[in-house]
Amino acid sequence: MKRKHTRPAAQARAKTATRKTSKPKSAPGKQAQPKSSRDKVRAHRARMRKRGFRLVQMWLPDTRTKEFAEQAHKASLAIANSPTEAEDQAFVDSISWWNSPEAAELEKNEPPTPWWRTDGKPD
Fold first, then answer.
1. Are 62 and 46 in contact (CB under 8 A)?
2. In terms of Cα–Cα distance, which of 45, 63, 65 is closest to 53?
């Protein structure tokens, strides 16, 4: 895919960092500096860390591409046509937790709010 802009990335970031601002939330008589996107993201990340979360970023395959679909189909055919397919599937079933009796029993006792929410607010 061809890039539309030929500006260096640092220049583009600097320009957008000064452009993207929010309206100040202050009293009508006071003049507050609007927050840049960078400041808002920094504050959000600080709040999330305070709540006990950590940021994880990773690159993943794009499952929407034709190439991914072709590769996945090819891999699934190789597995399905494998002479050890039945043994492989039996192993996967034996280590699968989500369809185990233990998982079903635990699901009955789940609290109404998701485990990752500690504030009790609905999603």
1. no
2. 45
